[in-house]
């Protein structure tokens, strides 16, 4: 029997978990999911999981060599630009195949009142022009930029309760992990008399409901554009396309 090809999956997303599930038990490959370790209780994924940073691009290169990795699948979040840049540098240094699995961004629909901004900092600056009570869904690591807006009242959604006070003068926390429904999002926004939504253009279905709810309620959405990532030779937007790419490079072995 030949040794399975060892693949490293840079994860932390709905798609990375779905890909790990799609390839669970697949003969001919051994897929290890890598998580940054930002949440204490990440969504369960089948197969081997490693947690924590590698120590920059150099650490990732050492990991790839040390573990005998045959290919990298970067399914990190569209806003996780650093790990994707490290993946590109490490793939180049080790001459390994790299696939980026990146879901499509949300597109503006008729009725949407989006305010496109290039960064979280710009979102914080423009937000007061659109209302005082904002539903803020940019993740726990990005809140400091909003601390300077003294007139704003934020409803902050987080996956888990923060261990330290948030850097915001006037805020309320609501805990939740997608997928959310538009009806629930609408109810939440009405309950808190939300006047605007602030979000990253993450794309995907799991958190789209707030966009649909804002459209129904006629609310503006301050939409942060995705950060640029270095180009890759192989890029897909769906889990099915990622599975096809993997099957092409590492075919399922014929039964003995
Ligand atoms: P980032 O800015 O691109 O990465 C910062 C550092 O975290 C990296 O340099 C790396 O540390 C470590 N890291 C990131 N992803 C990793 C992974 N999958 N496995 C091992 N180490 C990883 O990333 P981020 O925006 O902080 O996001 C962290 C994780 O949360 C990612 O896995 C991402 O998919 C997930 N996530 C992010 C967002 C978002 O909005 N940013 C939303 C949902 C989920 P070293 O340099 O030490 O290797």
3D structure, described in words:
The chain is an alpha/beta fold and 256 residues long. The chain has helices at residues 14-22, 56-66, 81-94, 120-126, 182-191, 209-217, 239-249; strands spanning 5-10, 29-35, 49-51, 69-74, 98-101, 113-117, 133-137, 153-158, 171-175, 196-200, 220-224, 234-236. It has 2 domains: 5-104 and 228-249, Rossmann fold (3-Layer(aba) Sandwich), CATH 3.40.50.720; 113-224, 3-Layer(aba) Sandwich (Rossmann fold), CATH 3.40.50.1980. The chain is built from 7 helices and 12 strands. The strands form 2 sheets. It has a 6-stranded parallel sheet with strand order 3-2-1-4-5-12, with helices on both faces. A 6-stranded parallel sheet has the order 6-11-10-7-8-9. 34% of the residues are buried. The mean pLDDT is 96. The protein binds NADP nicotinamide-adenine-dinucleotide phosphate. NADP nicotinamide-adenine-dinucleotide phosphate (NAP) binds at residues 10-13, 34-36, 38, 53-56, 59-60, 76-77, 79-83, 86, 139, 200.
């Amino acid at each position: 029997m030949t040794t399975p090809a060892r693949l490293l999956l840079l994860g932390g997303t709905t798609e990375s978990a779905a890909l790990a599930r799609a390839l669970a038990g697949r003969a001919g490959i051994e897929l290890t999911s890598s998580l940054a370790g930002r949440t204490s209780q990440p969504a369960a994924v089948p197969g081997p999981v490693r947690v924590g940073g590698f120590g920059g691009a150099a650490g990732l290169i050492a990991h790839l060599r040390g573990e005998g990795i045959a290919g990298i699948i970067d399914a990190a979040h569209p806003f996780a630009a650093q790990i994707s840049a490290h993946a590109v540098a490490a793939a180049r240094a080790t001459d390994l195949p790299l696939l980026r699995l990146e879901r499509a961004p949300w597109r503006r629909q008729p009725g949407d009142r989006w305010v496109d901004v290039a960064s979280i900092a710009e979102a914080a600056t423009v937000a007061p022009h659109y209302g005082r009570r904002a539903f803020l869904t940019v993740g726990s690591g990005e809140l400091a930029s909003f601390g300077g807006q003294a007139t704003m009242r934020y409803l902050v959604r987080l996956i888990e309760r923060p261990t330290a006070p948030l850097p915001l003068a006037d805020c309320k926390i609501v805990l939740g992990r997608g997928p959310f429904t538009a009806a629930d999002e609408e109810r939440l926004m009405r309950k808190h008399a939300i006047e605007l939504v602030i979000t990253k253009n993450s794309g995907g279905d799991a958190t789209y409901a707030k966009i649909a709810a804002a459209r129904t309620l006629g609310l503006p959405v301050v939409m942060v554009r995705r950060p640029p990532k270095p180009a890759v030779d192989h890029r897909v937007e769906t889990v099915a396309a990622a599975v096809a790419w993997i099957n092409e490079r590492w075919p399922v072995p014929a039964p003995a």
